[in-house]
Amino acid sequence: MDIEKRNIENQLFIDFRDNGNRQSFEELFRLVKPWMFKVINKIVNDYDDAKDIMQNSWIKLINSGNKFDPAKGNVNNLIFTIAKNEALQWKRKEKSLDRKYDLDCDEDNSQSHNDNPELMHVRNEKSDSIRYAISRLDVDYQNVILLYYYSDLSVGEIAVKLSIPEGTVKTWLDRGRQKLSKYLKHYVTN
Q1: What is the pTM for the complete model shown?
Q2: Concatenated DSSP letters for 83-125?
Protein backbone atom coordinates (compact mmCIF):
# COMPACT_ATOMS: atom_id res chain seq x y z
CA MET A 1 0.00 0.00 0.00
CA ASP A 2 2.81 2.41 0.90
CA ILE A 3 4.59 1.76 -2.41
CA GLU A 4 1.28 2.18 -4.20
CA LYS A 5 0.72 5.54 -2.48
CA ARG A 6 4.20 6.75 -3.48
CA ASN A 7 3.55 5.71 -7.06
CA ILE A 8 0.31 7.70 -7.03
CA GLU A 9 2.16 10.75 -5.71
CA ASN A 10 4.82 10.37 -8.41
CA GLN A 11 2.11 10.08 -11.08
CA LEU A 12 0.26 13.11 -9.74
CA PHE A 13 3.42 15.21 -9.75
CA ILE A 14 4.41 14.11 -13.25
CA ASP A 15 0.89 14.78 -14.55
CA PHE A 16 0.99 18.26 -13.09
CA ARG A 17 4.54 18.95 -14.30
CA ASP A 18 4.09 17.60 -17.81
CA ASN A 19 0.44 18.43 -18.48
CA GLY A 20 -0.26 21.31 -16.13
CA ASN A 21 -3.13 19.34 -14.57
CA ARG A 22 -4.22 21.45 -11.62
CA GLN A 23 -6.37 18.66 -10.15
CA SER A 24 -3.30 16.42 -9.95
CA PHE A 25 -1.43 19.14 -8.11
CA GLU A 26 -4.31 19.68 -5.69
CA GLU A 27 -4.54 15.96 -4.95
CA LEU A 28 -0.77 15.74 -4.43
CA PHE A 29 -0.95 18.74 -2.10
CA ARG A 30 -3.80 17.09 -0.15
CA LEU A 31 -1.79 13.87 0.27
CA VAL A 32 1.53 15.48 1.18
CA LYS A 33 0.48 18.55 3.18
CA PRO A 34 -0.02 16.87 6.60
CA TRP A 35 3.39 15.25 6.90
CA MET A 36 5.16 18.09 5.10
CA PHE A 37 3.76 20.64 7.54
CA LYS A 38 4.78 18.47 10.52
CA VAL A 39 8.36 18.26 9.25
CA ILE A 40 8.62 22.03 8.79
CA ASN A 41 6.86 22.93 12.02
CA LYS A 42 9.07 20.55 13.99
CA ILE A 43 12.14 22.42 12.73
CA VAL A 44 10.92 26.02 13.15
CA ASN A 45 8.45 25.44 15.99
CA ASP A 46 6.16 28.23 14.83
CA TYR A 47 2.80 27.67 13.11
CA ASP A 48 2.77 30.87 11.03
CA ASP A 49 6.39 30.52 9.94
CA ALA A 50 5.73 26.90 9.01
CA LYS A 51 2.84 27.95 6.76
CA ASP A 52 5.09 30.48 4.98
CA ILE A 53 7.90 27.96 4.61
CA MET A 54 5.50 25.38 3.23
CA GLN A 55 4.36 27.83 0.57
CA ASN A 56 7.97 28.61 -0.34
CA SER A 57 8.70 24.88 -0.51
CA TRP A 58 5.88 24.24 -2.95
CA ILE A 59 7.08 27.08 -5.16
CA LYS A 60 10.58 25.65 -5.11
CA LEU A 61 9.22 22.18 -5.91
CA ILE A 62 7.29 23.51 -8.89
CA ASN A 63 10.34 25.42 -10.15
CA SER A 64 12.63 22.39 -9.80
CA GLY A 65 10.10 19.90 -11.18
CA ASN A 66 11.98 19.35 -14.44
CA LYS A 67 14.90 17.93 -12.47
CA PHE A 68 12.74 15.18 -10.96
CA ASP A 69 13.30 11.76 -12.50
CA PRO A 70 10.95 9.07 -11.14
CA ALA A 71 13.40 6.35 -12.23
CA LYS A 72 15.98 7.76 -9.79
CA GLY A 73 13.75 8.45 -6.81
CA ASN A 74 10.44 9.31 -5.28
CA VAL A 75 8.79 12.74 -5.35
CA ASN A 76 8.25 12.45 -1.59
CA ASN A 77 12.02 12.43 -1.10
CA LEU A 78 12.33 15.57 -3.20
CA ILE A 79 9.49 17.26 -1.30
CA PHE A 80 10.98 16.26 2.06
CA THR A 81 14.43 17.54 1.10
CA ILE A 82 13.09 20.86 -0.18
CA ALA A 83 10.87 21.37 2.89
CA LYS A 84 13.65 20.49 5.33
CA ASN A 85 16.18 22.75 3.58
CA GLU A 86 13.73 25.66 3.39
CA ALA A 87 12.92 25.30 7.11
CA LEU A 88 16.59 25.12 8.09
CA GLN A 89 17.41 28.12 5.90
CA TRP A 90 14.53 30.08 7.48
CA LYS A 91 15.78 29.17 10.95
CA ARG A 92 19.34 30.29 10.08
CA LYS A 93 18.00 33.62 8.78
CA GLU A 94 15.92 34.09 11.93
CA LYS A 95 18.94 33.44 14.16
CA SER A 96 21.01 35.82 12.06
CA LEU A 97 18.37 38.55 12.40
CA ASP A 98 18.11 37.93 16.15
CA ARG A 99 21.87 38.47 16.47
CA LYS A 100 21.75 41.50 14.18
CA TYR A 101 19.02 43.21 16.20
CA ASP A 102 20.13 41.92 19.60
CA LEU A 103 19.17 44.29 22.38
CA ASP A 104 22.30 43.50 24.33
CA CYS A 105 24.63 44.97 21.68
CA ASP A 106 27.20 47.50 22.85
CA GLU A 107 26.75 51.25 22.46
CA ASP A 108 29.14 51.52 19.50
CA ASN A 109 27.16 48.94 17.58
CA SER A 110 23.80 50.44 18.54
CA GLN A 111 25.05 53.83 17.38
CA SER A 112 25.43 52.46 13.85
CA HIS A 113 21.75 51.44 13.94
CA ASN A 114 20.77 55.06 14.56
CA ASP A 115 21.63 55.91 10.96
CA ASN A 116 18.97 53.59 9.57
CA PRO A 117 15.35 54.43 10.51
CA GLU A 118 14.10 50.94 9.61
CA LEU A 119 16.64 49.28 11.90
CA MET A 120 15.85 51.76 14.66
CA HIS A 121 12.15 50.96 14.33
CA VAL A 122 12.73 47.20 14.51
CA ARG A 123 15.02 47.61 17.49
CA ASN A 124 12.64 49.93 19.34
CA GLU A 125 9.65 47.69 18.65
CA LYS A 126 11.52 44.64 19.93
CA SER A 127 12.74 46.54 22.97
CA ASP A 128 9.22 47.77 23.78
CA SER A 129 7.84 44.24 23.42
CA ILE A 130 10.45 42.82 25.76
CA ARG A 131 9.98 45.56 28.35
CA TYR A 132 6.23 45.06 28.29
CA ALA A 133 6.63 41.28 28.58
CA ILE A 134 8.97 41.70 31.57
CA SER A 135 6.45 44.00 33.27
CA ARG A 136 3.86 41.20 33.06
CA LEU A 137 6.07 38.75 34.99
CA ASP A 138 5.87 38.10 38.73
CA VAL A 139 8.00 40.59 40.66
CA ASP A 140 10.58 37.95 41.64
CA TYR A 141 11.14 36.97 37.99
CA GLN A 142 11.26 40.64 36.95
CA ASN A 143 13.95 41.42 39.52
CA VAL A 144 16.32 38.60 38.59
CA ILE A 145 15.89 39.16 34.84
CA LEU A 146 16.49 42.89 35.11
CA LEU A 147 19.52 42.43 37.38
CA TYR A 148 20.98 39.67 35.21
CA TYR A 149 20.40 41.11 31.73
CA TYR A 150 20.24 44.85 32.27
CA SER A 151 22.54 45.34 35.27
CA ASP A 152 24.98 42.62 34.18
CA LEU A 153 25.10 41.01 37.62
CA SER A 154 26.12 37.38 37.95
CA VAL A 155 23.89 34.77 39.57
CA GLY A 156 26.03 34.96 42.71
CA GLU A 157 25.82 38.76 42.87
CA ILE A 158 22.04 38.65 42.43
CA ALA A 159 21.77 36.05 45.23
CA VAL A 160 23.70 38.34 47.59
CA LYS A 161 21.76 41.45 46.56
CA LEU A 162 18.35 39.78 47.01
CA SER A 163 19.41 37.60 49.99
CA ILE A 164 18.30 34.37 48.34
CA PRO A 165 20.15 31.16 47.41
CA GLU A 166 21.88 30.96 44.02
CA GLY A 167 19.70 27.99 43.10
CA THR A 168 16.61 30.15 43.56
CA VAL A 169 18.10 32.83 41.29
CA LYS A 170 18.76 30.19 38.60
CA THR A 171 15.23 28.81 38.93
CA TRP A 172 13.64 32.26 38.72
CA LEU A 173 15.79 33.15 35.71
CA ASP A 174 14.79 29.93 33.95
CA ARG A 175 11.09 30.30 34.71
CA GLY A 176 11.16 33.99 33.82
CA ARG A 177 12.78 33.22 30.45
CA GLN A 178 10.18 30.55 29.72
CA LYS A 179 7.32 32.92 30.51
CA LEU A 180 8.92 35.69 28.44
CA SER A 181 9.37 33.33 25.52
CA LYS A 182 5.74 32.23 25.63
CA TYR A 183 4.50 35.79 25.89
CA LEU A 184 6.72 37.08 23.08
CA LYS A 185 5.68 34.24 20.76
CA HIS A 186 2.06 35.07 21.49
CA TYR A 187 2.69 38.80 21.09
CA VAL A 188 4.53 38.42 17.78
CA THR A 189 1.95 36.06 16.25
CA ASN A 190 -1.06 38.21 17.22
Answers
A1: 0.51
A2: HHHHHHHHHHHHHHHHHHT-TT--HHHHHHHTT-HHHHHHHHH
Half-sphere exposure of 44 (CA within 13 A, CB side): 27
**DSSP codes joined into one string, 2-32:** HHHHHHHHHHHHHHHHHH--HHHHHHHHHHH
> Of 24-38, 59-73, 86-100, where does the model show the most confidence?
24-38
Residues in the chain: 190
Q: Distance between CA atoms of 65 and 42, rounded to whole angstroms?
A: 25
pLDDT per residue as tens digits for the range 34-86: 999 999 999 888 888 899 899 989 999 998 878 888 888 889 888 999 999 99
- Rounded Cα distance, 50 and 90, in Å: 9
Q: Looking at the structure, tell me whether residues 11 and 95 fall in a common domain.
A: yes
> Looking at the 3D structure of the chain, how many domains does it have?
2
**Do 34 and 78 share a domain, yes or no?**
yes
Whether 9 and 76 have beta carbons less than 8 Å apart is answered as yes
Asked if residue 155 lies in contact with residue 148, where contact means CB atoms within 8 angstroms, the answer is yes
